[in-house]
Design brief:
By secondary structure, the protein is α/β, with parallel strands linked by helices. It has two domains: 10-59, no CATH class; 67-174, HAD superfamily/HAD-like (Rossmann fold, 3-Layer(aba) Sandwich), CATH 3.40.50. The protein has helices spanning 10-21, 43-54, 67-77, 91-100, 130-138, 167-174, and strands spanning 82-85, 108-111, 124-127, 142-146, 160-162. Helix 1 (10-21) crosses helix 2 (43-54) and helix 3 (67-77) runs parallel beside helix 6. The mean pLDDT is 94.
């Protein structure tokens, strides 16, 4: 299970930061994964700023109410690991955030790039990135796509779209794990 965009609404924190120093952007303006290009924001600056937002982890809101309950329901079905792509400097902040929001998981796995997640040995991935989903599907992985404005155009029906984390429970119960 991914953190940014699935559990934590860190993009809202970034938008608050961005809107103080650049052109105002709203969440509904973000219609693609690499939206920063449209606003002439350097990719590395964007990710650095996103990391800066994690330094104020106590102010980052969850994507929805009841992520704790949903994560516990998923944990009853099998092992739930947090798999996240980020700079090393933010891992402790993310772990503190997960603890504060009582998210149930067994292992915390950090990768450098999101597409590296697909190389990991998991039955099901819950992610919001259309690029990660595409890479995972290419490797024959099961993907649950957490609905966000930047993945609405994702065309592959093999990725099951959810609007709330608890919806993943029913989807996972129907997946053949052979």
């Amino acid at each position: 299970m991914d953190v940014d965009g699935v559990l934590a609404d860190v993009i809202d924190a970034w938008l608050s930061y961005n809107n103080k120093v650049r052109t105002t952007i709203s969440k509904s303006d973000i219609s693609e994964w690499d939206f920063w290009k449209k606003y002439n924001i350097n990719k590395f600056d964007f990710y650095k700023e996103l990391s800066e937002c994690w330094k104020s982890w106590k102010t980052i809101l969850p994507t929805e109410n009841n992520i704790s309950r949903a994560s516990r329901e998923l944990s009853k079905m099998g092992t739930v690991d947090i798999v996240t792509a980020r700079e090393d400097s933010t891992h402790d902040d993310v772990k503190n955030w997960l603890k504060m929001h009582d998210v149930a998981f067994k292992n915390y796995v950090g990768v450098v790039e999101g597409t590296e997640k697909a190389k990991l040995d998991y039955d099901v991935f819950i992610d919001d990135s259309p690029i990660n989903a595409e890479t995972m599907l290419a490797r024959e992985k099961s993907v649950i796509l957490y609905n966000q404005p930047w993945n609405l155009q994702f065309p592959d029906p093999r990725a099951k779209r959810i609007y709330e984390l608890r919806e993943a429970v029913e989807i996972i119960s129907k997946i053949d794990h052979n």
